[in-house]
Amino acid sequence: MKELAIEDKQKFLQENYPFEDPPNLTDKRRCIHCDTVFYVGDFKVFKDNTGNELICCPKAPDCNGTVIDWFRLL
Ligand SMILES: [Zn+2]
Fold this sequence. Notes:
By secondary structure, the protein is mainly β. 11% of the residues lie in helices and 28% in strands. It is built from 1 helix and 6 strands, in the order E-H-E-E-E-E-E. The strands form 2 sheets. Strands 1-4-5 form a 3-stranded antiparallel sheet, with no helix packed on it. It has a 3-stranded antiparallel sheet with strand order 3-2-6, with no helix packed on it. The chain is globular.
């Protein structure tokens, strides 16, 4: 997988977030794969072999968590 540099991360989220209501870059989430708490704006984007652009955990590629593995903090 190849990491992509994203210029406008808020716009990228708006266009690629898989659920309703994309979060703000300043929101915090917890990755359930590596148990890291991070700011949404620190997400990384990787392109897989089929050309899909995946919104990934900031710890990627060490962590294989993606946007579907992010949980809101209580
Ligand atoms: Zn993670």
